[in-house]
Amino acid sequence: FIACVCKHIEPGNLAGIQHIILVLSGKGGVGKSTISTELALALRHAGKKVGILDVDLCGPSIPRMLRAEGKAVHQCDSGWVPVFVDQEQSISLMSVGFLLEKPDEAVVWRGPKKNALIKQFVSDVAWGQLDYLVVDTPPGTSDEHMAAVDALRPYSPLGALVVTTPQAVSVGDVRRELTFCRKTGLRVIGVVENMSGFVCPHCTECTNIFSRGGGEELARHAGVPFLGSVPLDPELTRSLEEGRDFIQEFPQSPAFPVLS
Ligand code: ADP
């Protein structure tokens, strides 16, 4: 089977990818992996072939969100063969989570080793032909981000999607993220404000439990596009825990318009 898959994978690995989207956030827990996952699912619904590269080495959560935990990555002549997460084989995934012996094992490595793995992920995964590669990065702006940007730069069009929450602290962190993009010459596709309001599980009305609009204001100040607000929806949390397709199952949710 592996030999058969490998025959259809061209060497060069990233050469067959049309667009690369780096998903960034100033801090953890703002929904970066959620947005990466839903973006990949939305692109699949639009008929695109998508790869996800999960380089959040210390918190690889995408295999769990896509119900791919415990699956194995194989080696072939052109590198690692990513895991297909759906029957139609339209979403493929490579994550450090597949290389750990246990899903909750921690990656306790120093910077150079992490950077080397990121470079290896970029050069050695045999993606084949993809319309989009979504790259889920660790929070912040660390050496790992530099390693990812440096390794991916030759394969543009490369752009960054910046995720924030409405609260000021997160918005302050994300300002640093935008500075990182400017300094590294990374095009900002836009800012998404996540956890913007709360969707009542009974009537699906959306209430602003925190402040709102910080992401939009930040985008306006920075002169980058604002892509919209995604409220906190308990159905989205549940869908991600159970590896279900939220966009398909909850089109009535106020979170649907931006996610889809
Ligand atoms: P990060 O990648 O930034 O660390 P995650 O994407 O892992 O954050 O999200 C943290 C938690 O919040 C997850 O349990 C996820 O299911 C939940 N979550 C994120 N965004 C939403 C949302 N808009 N509605 C409901 N739950 C969300």
TrEMBL record:
GO BP: any one term: iron-sulfur cluster assembly
Which residues make up the binding site for ATP? 26-33
- Name-wise, this protein is Cytosolic Fe-S cluster assembly factor NUBP2
Summarize subunit and interaction data from the UniProt record for this chain.
Heterotetramer of 2 NUBP1 and 2 NUBP2 chains. Interacts with KIFC1. Interacts with NUBP1.
A Gene Ontology cellular-component term: centrosome
Query: Where do the annotations place [4Fe-4S] cluster binding?
Result: 200, 203
Family assignment?
Belongs to the Mrp/NBP35 ATP-binding proteins family. NUBP2/CFD1 subfamily.
Q: Which cofactor does it need?
A: [4Fe-4S] cluster
**What role is this protein assigned?**
Component of the cytosolic iron-sulfur (Fe/S) protein assembly (CIA) machinery. Required for maturation of extramitochondrial Fe-S proteins. The NUBP1-NUBP2 heterotetramer forms a Fe-S scaffold complex, mediating the de novo assembly of an Fe-S cluster and its transfer to target apoproteins. Negatively regulates cilium formation and structure.
Q: Which UniProt keywords apply?
A: 4Fe-4S, ATP-binding, Cytoplasm, Cytoskeleton, Iron, Iron-sulfur, Metal-binding, Nucleotide-binding, Nucleus
Cofactor: binding details: Binds 4 [4Fe-4S] clusters per heterotetramer. Contains two stable clusters in the N-termini of NUBP1 and two labile, bridging clusters between subunits of the NUBP1-NUBP2 heterotetramer.
Its subcellular locations are: Cytoplasm, Cytoskeleton, Cilium axoneme; Cytoplasm, Cytoskeleton, Microtubule organizing center, Centrosome, Centriole; Nucleus; Cytoplasm, Cytoskeleton, Microtubule organizing center, Centrosome
The UniProt GO MF terms for this protein read:
4 iron, 4 sulfur cluster binding; ATP binding; ATP-dependent FeS chaperone activity; metal ion binding
- State where it is primarily located: cytoplasm
Relative to the complete UniProt sequence, the shown stretch is 46 to 305 of 320
